[in-house]
Amino acid sequence: MTKGRLIIVANRLPIKIEKRNGILHFSRSIGGLATVLKGIHEREKSIWVGWPGTILQKDAQTEEELLQNQRCYPVFLGKEDVEKFYHGICNNTFWPLFHSFPWIIRFKTSEWKSYKKVNRLFCDRILEVAHERDVIWIHDYHLMLLPKYLRERIPSATIGFFFHVPFPPLEIFSLMPWDREILEALLHADLIGFHIYGYARNFLNSVLGVFGIDHKLGEIIFENRIVHVGAFPMGIDFASFDKAGKEKKSLTKELRGRYGNKKIMLSVARLDYTKGIPELLDAFELLLEKYPKEQGRVSLMLGVSPSRTRVEEYRLLKKDIDEKVGRINGRFGRTDWTPVWYFYRTFSFDQLIDLYSIADVAVFPSLRDGLNLMAKEYVAARGEEGGILVVSEFAGVSKELVEAFIVNPKDKDGFVDLLMRALNMSLEEQKRCMRAMRKRLKNYDAPHWAADFLNSLSKVKEHQHKFEMNLMGDESERKLIEQYKRSKRRLLFLDYDGTLMPFVEEPSEAVPSGEILLILKRLCDENTVVLISGRDKQTLYNWFEKLPVNLVAEHGIWVKEYGAEWKREELSSDWKGKIRSVLELYTDRCPGSFVEEKEFSVAWHYRKSDQLLAATAANELALELTHLTASMDVSVLSGNKVIELRPMSANKGKVALSWISRQSWDFILAAGDDSTDEDLFGILPKDAYSIKVGLGGSKAKFNLSSPQRMVELLQKLVG
Predict the structure, then answer these.
(1) Which long-range CB contacts under 8 A does 646-650 form with residues at least 24 apart?
(2) pLDDT per position as a tens digit, 426-456
């Protein structure tokens, strides 16, 4: 783990604060993030920054008591901020958006302003306690702007961000007016974590769709920083639930007796439209109707915790649940049997253990759920002696506890059939499934989850440091310029697109500026300069004919030494006809893409296309072309928003050798930006300077962040 303290940042503190008779009373919060991170908060001696959960005036004594006794640092919010930030945008915009309920989303500019204000307040409070080497771990959608605000104040900060909710597909995320601003802020974190890869994939697709930036194995290069995106399914305090469950074993018979010794089907959830409670009740009603023998044999124990009772959608949901429970009990109930035991209340830890211990089947039918920790708690508390878990396919936990029954809560008939299979599952099969799930949960519990995330964060920082070491700093630049000034016989190989000139949508628009032409002229007056590009020869000639420069076109196929005619190797272009139809097919499939045909090479560009569609098409095309050209003397090269095909015998390295071997050079410099330049970097002498423009792995000795930085360096050489 990175040196320094751990600072946990979440919307709420793990402490409940109540004011009774003018005196503040503190108690531990139960459930959710507070329970999961309790162990690491204590073990790491971390500081927890968050809102106390009640409106308090900023008070030095309260602040001191929280910090000294609980290691908590409060963020004080006023009534208006709580209303607009928490009850407003967090509950009415982000919650339905991230859970893919677009018809419920409400967008209000005033609430967005409050969201930004509160994120700024959190930033200011963190800066009061954070040191440069501390690890700042931010949690959930309430604080998505915080990574950027912190990075602006502490550029070298170690920042992790974890989403506890699902991340929606791009089509839903982009409904939000502030999608770009939020993504950009999040990408100032070093590591962004999700419960499952599906959510991480949605996030990566959103980055691709909004910014056009693709990833490589979850790694994004954003504004010359490496950001990693990964999946870390949250664990629970397995030992505590396992121990508590075992302690309840002796009371199980007594507890079950209170409910008539029937088979018990349990479902516990917070009141929320994402939890699938009405769907469960509909399925249970159909089960009793379709299988009359189950009447009097099985009861549904439904626990619903009150939540957001001020919100109209929640009041209507509560009314719907009440009516469904009343209808089922009125329709099927008997004096000796209650079909649905309905509890509308919050549950303590001990009460949850009671419920888990007596439940034959636990059902969690979420319509959308980041993970669902209660499913894990049931498995841990129930022990290995039996018990059946049913989880929704739309809950993240279904990707982890694969031995459970996986259900689509919207498929009512399928739901009923699956519940019947669960009720009739053999004890031997129950034990087998429980053993497998319990082993997994024990191995990847809450401390393991936290350690996994924080260790990954530390590795990301190490990875960033290695790349920063390759970035040309002031000292390396000074040495390069000094060696250049001392030398007499100098050779420069310069790529064009992405090296001297930023990429543009239309390749024909990348005309060299007057500044670049002047710098190149001054370089050519004192050096041997080779412009070595993937461009066609006619374009290069039109742009640079007035300069005393050597030109290499189509990655080495065409060579024009200054004062001479164009020359090339004896090459065949017959292969182009065999692949042209494939490129045209993908051009039709991917609007905005186009084919650029040169004499002996051909390129498929997709910079102007929808980036999400284009990335998929490009991967498919590259694979198809690789198979198609397997028996041809043709290379398939993936560049920056382009796939290019050229004869295998033609490459920049081979051409560059012909210049390098002509004499003993005092100074050699090569600069390029993509995979086609790696052949060039690979053949350079050890004392040569090689520069990759942009971040990413390379054979080059140094990286520069942008074409602008490369042009600035060349300006210093001639200045």
Answers:
(1) 646/554, 646/555, 646/557, 646/600, 646/601, 647/557, 647/571, 647/572, 647/600, 647/601, 649/569, 649/571, 650/554, 650/555, 650/556, 650/557, 650/569, 650/571, 650/600, 650/601
(2) 999 999 999 999 999 999 999 999 999 999 9
